[in-house]
Structure formats: C-alpha cells, structure tokens
C-alpha cells in the first residue's frame, strides 16, 4: 500500500513538473528559449531532464534560456545533496541515515587552512552579474562528504594555473585590486564614461594596446604551453621574497617577452586572455602589407579575428565582446579626436551596428553568425576611415585615432602606469620600473600621450598610491615627476595647443588637463597641511615632502589658470601662513576641548589650558618650525603670536571679571604670565634686536587687575544664566513620564534641582567674603528659574474654553418640526465649530497632566528644603563676612530670611490650579464629550440617565488616582467634580433643541444628582461630604426650577425681567437667563408663544 502511494505521488509530481515547465517555456516570462542541438520544438525535449531551478533563475533575470545548460545543470545536481534554496543556512538535508551514522565525533575538527589575499585597490564598481559556477567540476575526492584534509601544495597551484580557461568566465568579478582607504575621495576630476565601462575593462583594453604597440616593434610572439613549467618555482619565489626593499627583486626571462610577461602579471591578465589577444593581433596583421600593429583599429580587429570557440564560457565571450564594442563607441563616438563634422550621421550608423553585433549573440547560432559577420563588415567600412583621419599633424592612415581621445586616453594610460607597482606589495615599485616606463612610451602614439601628459599622469598615479599605502618612499618619486612637468614656456607650440584642447566639465566646472589631475592632489595636500598638527603629529618626517608637493602643484595650477604670480617665494610664504593659521587654530581648538573635558577639579581650566598651549608651542618650535621656516623665515613668530592671541581671547573674560584674589586667579595668573614670557622669548630669539619691539607692539599683552567686590555677583549672574539654560533644556527634553512607580514626577524637575544645588554648592565653595546682596541675587535667580520652569509647564496648555463646545443658539419649540429636526439642527450647529478647531487645540493626555501636577508639587515641596539649606549654610559663613564688611551687615537687617521664594511658590500654585481645572474640563468636555455633553438626556431623561456615565467617569478617576500623588488627590478630584457639574448644567440649560425637559423630569434629575454626589463622596473614601454638598448646591437649585410648570416659570420670568431683562430675580428664585433657558427646553406651545412674543426667539428649523 505504501509503495502504491509513493508511485502515485511520483506520478503526480512528474505531471505537475511538466505543467510548470510548459507554462514557463511557452509564456512571456523568458525572453528567448534556445533549443538544444537536434531539437526543433519543445516536443523534442525531454522535460524530465530539464532543471526547474535553472529555468526559474532565467525567468527571474529576464534573460535568455539555453535548454542545453538547463539539462546539464540537472545532471550535475544529481550527484549532490538536495537543497531547498530557502535562503536559510540552518536547514539542510542529510544524504545518510542519521540513526545509522552513530554519535558525533568527540574530537575537534582539523583546522582549515585559509589563504588571506593581500589588500588590493578597487578600480571602480563592477556592474557585471555574479557568475553561476557549476558544481560538476567538483571531483568525488573533493566532494562535500570527503573527510580528507591536506595542505595546499605547489602542484595544486600549477593545477589552478592550468585551469585558467575554465575560470575566465568569472574572472571579471574578482575582488578589488586595491584597498582605497583614504583615497575614496581622491579621484581625478574626469567625467564618467557614458557606456559604464569598468576599471577592469579599461585595464584589459590597456593591455591590448600595449601588446599591439609592442608587436609593432616585432616583440609579439604567442607563448607555448611549455612556458608553464617554470611558473611554479617563480611563483613560490615571489611569494617568499622579502618586502623590506623599496624595489621588488624578481627573476624573469630577458628581453621584451620577459618584460611583457611581468606586465601581464602586474595587470592581472590571465594567460588565456594573453594568448588569445596575441594570436588575434597576429591574425589581424596577416595580409595587411605595410601595416603596423599599432596602426590597426584594435577592438575591431579582435572582434573579427577571435571567435566564440576560443572561450571556455559563453558569458566570458559576451562580456569580452561587449567590452570591445563599448571601447569602439567611446573611442570613435563619445571621445573622438576628430569631430564628425558634416558626416555626423555616421555616429548613429556606428551605434546601430554596435547594437546589432551585440544583439546577434541572442539569435539562433546560424542567423546570429550571419548578422554578426555582415555588421562587422559594415562596421569596418565606416569605422576604419573615421579612425584613420589625420589629426595633430599626422597623415591619413598614419595613426589610428581610436584610443587617443580625451579623456579615454588618460584613463587607459593610467591603467598602464599602475603596472609599475608590485601586485603583492603595492607600496613598492618593481625592479623593472624603468624598463616598463620605457616600454609604455611605445603607446604614446596610439594614446596621444605627450611628455606633459605622461609626467602628470605618472605623478597622479604615484600620489594616489601613496595615499592608499602610506608608503613614504613614494613621495620622492612623486616630487621627481612633478618637477619634470614642463611649464608653459617650456612646452612646444604643438603640445601647448594640444593641452589647451583637453578640457572636461565636471559638476559644472570647466577644467583643463592639469587641473583635472593636479587639483585633487593640491586639495588633499592642503587638507593635510591645514591641520599638520593632527596629520603629522607622529610622522613629521614626511611633512617636508608633502609641503614640497603642495608648493609644486600650487605653482603649476596658478600658471595653468593664468594668475599673476609675484614671485615663487612670496606665493609660498602666503600659503605657509595659511597653513600655520588654520593648523594652529585647529590644534588650539582641540586642546581647548580636551581641557574642557578633562578633570579640572584641582586646577582651573585656564591654568591647564596655558600649560597645554605652552606644550603645543614647544612642539611647534622644535618639530614643525624647522620645516616651515625654509619657506617662511618668520614662521615661529607667526605661530607664537597667533597662540598668544587665541589664549588671550579665552583669558580676557576671566581677566575682566577678576576683581578679587581667588584661588582661580592665583592658579590662572602665573600660568598665563609664564606662557606670555615664553612666547616673547621665542619671538625675541627669532628676530633681530631691532625688530623685537616691533613684534612685541603687535601683541595685545595680558593684563592682571586687582579683584573688586563685584566678582561674586558676576559669577552668580553667569551661573544663573547657566541655570536658566538648563531649565530650558530640561523642559525641552521632558517627555512627562514618571521616573518610577514611587517617584511619579518628571525627570526635568530633578535635573533642575540638580543644577540649582550644584550652583549653590559652588557659590558657598568660593573662598571669598560675601555680602547679603550676593545671597539675595542668588535667591532671586533661583526664584526666577523656578518661575520660568512653572511657566514653561503650562505655556503649551490649551485654554479650557477651547475644550468646551460652543453653546447652541437658543430656539423655541416647534410642533411641526418634531424631535428629528431639532436633533439634526443641533448636530449641525454644535459640532461644526469643534471640528474646525480640534486640529488647532493641543490636548495633552490625562497621564501627562498628572505627571505635570506631580512635578510641580515636587518643585514646591522641595523648595522649602532648599531654602532652609541655603540659610543654614549662610549662617555658618556669616561671621567671616562680618569681619570684612560691617557696613553691608548693617544694611542686611532689611533682608528677610523667609519668603525668599514667594514668587515661585505663587506661580507654581497657580500652575497647579490651572492644570487641575484643565484636567477636569478635559475629561468631561473632551474625553467624555459624546456620552456626556452630546448624548446625556437625549432624546429624553428617562431614556438616557446619568448613571450610565458613572463607569467611564470612574475609569478616568481611577487613572487620575493611580498617577497623582496623594497630597494633590483631593484637588484634582474636586476639579473633576466641578467639571462634571458644569457639564450637567450645560446639558440641562444649554443642551440644544434636541433635549426636552418636562416638569416630571425634575425628580429623575434630582436622583441623578444624588448618584453623582455619592460617587464623589465614595462612602467616605472620596471628597468630604461638605465639600461636595457646597459644589452641587447650584445644580440642585436649577433642577428645582425644572419642576415648576410652564405658567409659573413664565410669570416669574415676566416679573423678574422688567426693563433690564438680565438683572434681578423672580419669586421662585431663578435669574432671567436660567428661566429663559428652561423655557427654551419645554416642549409646549405656551412656552413657544411666550418666547416668540417676548424675546423674539426663532423656532428651531432644519
């Protein structure tokens, strides 16, 4: 039975698999399906042998599907464990039976030998997709189930070298060649290439150019496979060589072929690509009598001479072909040396042909090959004449202009220059650097490189490599190349015109060739030297070379921009002054920040700052001045004078306020004076005797003045300003959450008390005599701080009037309209204003309001302790004051010991009352508006009783009592009672035309009032009964008026109205406004007629 189920499941799986594949292959999910050899339609393909995963991946990528590859993937995966491809590394399937495998091994697994490659420089982003490497290449001895562990041997290295053809397909996704670290922003100011060519593409094309130019001199041969025999020993020697030398020592085959082999390795070109390119170039030259390799259109010739069969993988071929097509587009269309002129339509023809060649790879093999051949023929007819047009004084056909257009040429040449660095130690130059540079000269003709371009590009490459590797040995080479760059008058007329034509626009800035390469160098050097105290703090030995680099590049760029240079020494002096000024300021700022962050408990910060400034100046005079004085003889005078002024700026506020001899003054003055004396000694030693006084007069000397009795008051004022700032900050950062269940106030008041107590401690720590006026100033400042705090708490509190909906317009009873009309009218009149204003009202939550109340109560309760503490400490300090200032003590009799914080107490209590009142109003008129204000007693008293509101009010009351502190409980509950009574009066007097009250409803209203009263008394656990009775008295009176008949109310209203309707009272004790509103809520014609006749009140209508 189980076997039958298994067979049935397999049949169902096979059928569903066929349906899925038919849907994928016949639909539009896949761009194109290429049949395997021998198959014409899908009926000829065995779908059981097609990998579904492969088909799905192609559908996701939207690319072309080759069924032959799908079939191969299916068979390759048969030998491997099944994976669910779910993306999780925690799930897997066992090939073996876990029960029969026994217990896991008790010993640790053998260590895995990991080879860490050297750091390499990234040459730009790689946009090619990640390759899919077939697992079929994994041999059984190296399968995932293998337990053999062996070290990597030389034979393995040789095997890897022999498999270059197989891994060439994924060669383009290699790791970045260099680690860019600080050079990420150090890029030549050149616009991006339109085709998106990567740095790897440029590097490979540059090598092809080099081979063509080397072949022009007869040095191009196709190496045989036998040359691999000695590769193993050369590789191991290279891996084991010492890296301590500045120039890499290596062994190579003598002659041009050996040099090309070194360049191939340096440029990371695989042997397969090297051999293929050499053979293609030689085949391209065959039959072309009188032609040199360097006069050929290399990408076109390689496209014609290298076929698909020479690549191990189709993807590698497509990538290689795309690179050649992009190079043709960049060299002939995007960056041509000679413009198209009247033959501009040829550019479009070229683009169309390039696109058709790329498209041919996705057509059937026979049709694609025909299209490719025809397009290549047409491409040759158009491209070769364009490339062989004369430029820069050459003859037609003498130079093939396809790679010498700016800025493509300098990008290719840059890749060639990078070959001078060893691939394993990129801060070193190879031993063959001179031979390499000499060989690169052969590419100048093809790339349009001149001496100026060469020296500039080489200096740029060296400098960028220095920034990456921080190898100081490269700086001398950089300086050497920068010095070789000829000035304008040293260049020939043809080169001068050629360089003037090399312009590029980057981010809206029009740049010349030299500006594109030298301005990044100058910017980097200026940044380093503008803070040389930071960047050369430990490596000042290289600072001199960086200064020289900055001076040379600055001089070249000034000449390039045609700026008038007075003299090189004057220009250098101005730049050195700029470096000194910015670096000294930055170093002093860091010193100041460090002093401010340091522990200045035992020493004043200004005294410590003076000591640190003196250390800074000593380092400046002994380390940096000898370097800077080579171009600015008065460098130390400028540094010392600037530090004198910077420290004086920080010292002046202290000096202006120093009127009494305090510990701080005793600490600061000697340090400041010692710094000034040291500065003057440095200035005196740097200038002649005649100039000493001149330089001294330029300084603003420090002045030490006697300390007066106003120092304490100034200190108090400054500290109180700081306290106010902290109060503002504490309020801004307050989120009104309780600190803990036990401490239900906000954190801001704790922070305010902390800073206030800290200020008080510092006040009494001042070891100087104090007058009561200073203490009075301290009291006034603290009192003001708490007033500011209480005002900030309530400043964003909305007005309680904003929470109360507008009173409906008084209307009289209309028999025809009925209740529904009144309801509709009232809904329209009363709610519309609320909706328009609700978005403008800032209504805080009940919990927030409770925390604010707790915070204010904490503030006022701790105020007494603070006041008593200050007076106690003042009493202990007072005898010392009597010794110094008796007259002040005589005046202090009018200074009250108590009541110093009356202002803040008054404001805090007022804020508590306002928040309590607002909270009660918010709960009744905002949170419970719908059940209370809008729906209570609607449509009648009997159908909507107040008892239904007790539960929501109780919930709000519980929330209040859970958060509010005990001393404030009765105050907040009283506010809620008051708001509840206000809401009840609103309902029975201004409930709108939708509410109708009969005299018989008075008894029900009285019962509801009793329910509300007992709720707030809560059997003695709530408010005192007397307090509640006093509050509900006014509501009980209104309810009694509702019990009177309409005629009695009318008669009383008539007698009470008189001449002034709003004044006086009637026999039954009701004022005119109350009686009028009660009649407006009566549903009888007598009341309606009376209101119409006497008060002109309109009837309610829709």
UniProtKB/TrEMBL annotation:
GO terms for cellular component: cytoplasm; plasma membrane. Residues 943-1053 form the MHD2 domain. Gene3D superfamilies: 1.10.357.50. It comes from the Eukaryota. It holds the Pfam family TPR_PATROL1. Residues 666-807 form the MHD1 domain. InterPro entries: Munc13_1, Munc13_dom-2, PATROL1_C, unc-13_homologue. This is MHD1 domain-containing protein. It comes from Manihot esculenta (Cassava).
């Amino acid at each position: 039975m189980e076997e039958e189920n298994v067979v049935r499941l397999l049949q169902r799986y096979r059928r569903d698999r066929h349906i899925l594949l038919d849907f994928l292959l016949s639909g539009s999910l896949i761009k194109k399906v290429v049949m395997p050899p021998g198959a014409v339609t899908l009926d000829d393909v065995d779908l059981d042998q097609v990998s579904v995963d492969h088909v799905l991946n192609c559908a996701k990528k939207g690319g072309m599907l080759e069924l032959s590859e799908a079939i191969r993937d299916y068979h390759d995966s048969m030998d491997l464990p099944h994976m669910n491809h779910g993306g999780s590394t925690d799930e897997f399937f066992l090939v073996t039976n876990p029960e029969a495998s026994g217990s896991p091994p008790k010993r640790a697994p053998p260590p895995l030998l990991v080879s860490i490659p050297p750091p390499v420089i990234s040459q730009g982003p790689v946009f090619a997709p990640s390759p899919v490497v077939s697992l079929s290449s994994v041999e059984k001895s190296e399968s995932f189930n293998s337990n053999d562990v062996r070290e990597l041997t030389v034979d393995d290295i040789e095997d890897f070298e022999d498999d270059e053809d197989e891994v060439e397909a994924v060669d383009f996704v290699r790791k970045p060649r260099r680690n860019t670290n600080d050079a990420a922003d150090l890029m030549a100011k050149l616009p991006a290439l339109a085709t998106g060519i990567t740095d790897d593409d440029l590097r490979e094309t540059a090598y092809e150019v080099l081979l063509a130019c080397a072949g022009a001199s007869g040095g191009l041969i196709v190496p045989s496979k036998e040359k691999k025999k000695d590769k193993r020993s050369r590789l191991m020697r290279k891996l084991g060589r010492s890296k301590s030398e500045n120039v890499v020592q290596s062994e190579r085959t003598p002659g041009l072929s050996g040099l090309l082999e070194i360049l191939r390795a340096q440029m990371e070109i695989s042997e397969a690509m090297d051999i293929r390119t050499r053979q293609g170039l030689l085949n391209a030259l065959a039959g072309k009598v009188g032609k040199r390799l360097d006069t050929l259109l290399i990408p076109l010739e390689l496209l014609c001479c290298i076929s698909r069969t020479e690549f191990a993988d189709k993807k590698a071929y497509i990538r290689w072909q795309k690179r050649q097509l992009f190079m043709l587009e960049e060299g002939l269309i995007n960056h041509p040396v000679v413009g198209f002129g009247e033959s501009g339509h040829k550019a479009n023809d070229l683009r169309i042909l390039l696109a058709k060649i790329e498209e041919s790879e996705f057509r059937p093999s026979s049709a694609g090959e025909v299209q490719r051949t025809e397009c290549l023929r047409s491409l040759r007819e158009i491209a070769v004449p364009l490339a062989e047009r004369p430029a820069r004084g050459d003859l037609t056909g003498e130079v093939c202009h396809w790679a010498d257009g700016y800025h493509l040429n300098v990008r290719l040449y840059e890749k060639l220059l990078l070959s001078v660095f060893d691939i394993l130690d990129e801060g070193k130059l190879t031993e063959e650097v001179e031979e390499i540079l000499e060989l690169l000269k052969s590419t100048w003709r093809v790339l349009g490189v001149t001496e100026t371009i060469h020296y500039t590009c080489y200096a740029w490459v060296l400098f960028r490599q220095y920034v990456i590797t921080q190898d100081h040995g490269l700086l001398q080479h950089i300086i050497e190349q920068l010095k070789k760059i000829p000035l304008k008058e040293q260049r020939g007329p043809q080169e001068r015109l050629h360089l003037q034509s090399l312009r590029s626009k980057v981010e809206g800035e029009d740049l010349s060739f030299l500006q594109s390469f030298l301005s990044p160098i100058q910017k980097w050097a200026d940044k380093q030297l503008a803070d040389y105290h930071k960047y050369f703090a430990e490596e000042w030995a290289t600072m001199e070379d960086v200064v020289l680099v900055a001076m040379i590049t600055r001089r070249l760029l000034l000449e390039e921009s045609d700026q008038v240079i007075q003299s090189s020494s004057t220009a250098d002096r101005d730049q050195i002054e700029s470096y000194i000024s910015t670096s000294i300021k930055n170093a002093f700022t860091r010193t100041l920040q460090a002093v401010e962050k340091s522990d200045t408990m035992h020493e004043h910060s200004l005294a410590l700052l003076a000591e640190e400034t003196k250390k800074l100046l000593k380092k400046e005079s002994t380390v940096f001045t000898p370097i800077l004085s080579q171009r600015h003889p008065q460098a130390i005078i400028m540094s010392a004078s600037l530090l004198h002024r910077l420290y004086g700026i920080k010292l002046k506020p202290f000096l202006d306020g120093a009127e009494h001899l305090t510990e701080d003054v005793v600490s600061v003055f000697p340090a400041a004076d010692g710094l000034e004396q040291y500065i003057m000694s440095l200035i005196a030693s740097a200038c002649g005797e005649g100039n000493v006084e001149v330089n001294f007069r330029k300084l603003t000397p420090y002045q030490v003045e006697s300390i007066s009795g106003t120092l304490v008051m100034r200190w108090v004022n400054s500290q109180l300003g700081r306290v106010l700032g902290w109060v503002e900050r504490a309020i801004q950062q307050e989120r009104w959450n309780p600190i803990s269940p036990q401490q239900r106030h906000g954190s801001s008041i704790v922070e305010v008390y902390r800073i206030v107590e800290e200020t008080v401690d510092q006040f009494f720590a001042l070891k100087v005599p104090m007058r009561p006026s200073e203490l009075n100033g301290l009291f006034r400042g603290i009192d003001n701080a708490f007033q500011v705090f209480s005002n900030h708490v309530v400043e964003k509190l909305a007005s309680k009037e904003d929470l109360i909906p507008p009173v409906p317009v008084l209307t009289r009873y209309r028999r025809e309209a009925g209740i529904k009309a009144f309801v509709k009218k009232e809904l329209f009149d009363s709610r519309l204003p609320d909706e328009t204003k609700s978005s403008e009202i800032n209504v805080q939550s009940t919990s927030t309001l409770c925390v604010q109340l707790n915070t204010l109560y904490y503030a006022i309760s701790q105020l007494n302790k603070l006041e008593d503490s200050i007076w106690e400490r003042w009493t202990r300090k007072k005898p010392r004051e009597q010794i110094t200032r008796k007259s002040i003590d005589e005046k202090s009799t009018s200074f009250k010991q108590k009541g110093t914080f009356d202002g803040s107490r008054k404001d805090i209590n007022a804020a508590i009352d306002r928040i309590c009142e607002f909270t009660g109003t918010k709960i009744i008129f905002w949170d419970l508006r719908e059940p209370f204000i809008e729906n209570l007693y609607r449509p009648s008293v009997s159908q909507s009783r107040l008892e239904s509101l007790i539960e929501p009010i109780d919930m709000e009351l519980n929330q209040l009592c859970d958060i509010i502190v005990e001393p404030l409980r009765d105050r907040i509950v009283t506010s809620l009672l008051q708001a509840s009574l206000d809401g009840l009066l609103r309902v029975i007097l201004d409930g709108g035309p939708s509410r109708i009250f009969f005299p018989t409803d008075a008894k029900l209203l009285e019962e509801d009032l009793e329910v509300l009263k007992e709720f707030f008394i809560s059997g003695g656990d709530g408010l005192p009964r007397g307090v509640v009775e006093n509050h509900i008295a006014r509501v009980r009176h209104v309810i009694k008026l509702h019990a009177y008949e309409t005629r009695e109310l009318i008669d009383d209203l008539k007698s009470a109205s008189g001449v002034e309707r709003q004044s006086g009272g009637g026999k039954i004790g009701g004022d005119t406004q109350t009686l009028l509103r009660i009649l407006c809520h009566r549903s009888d014609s007598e009341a309606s007629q009376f209101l119409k006749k006497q008060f002109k009140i309109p009837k309610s209508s829709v």
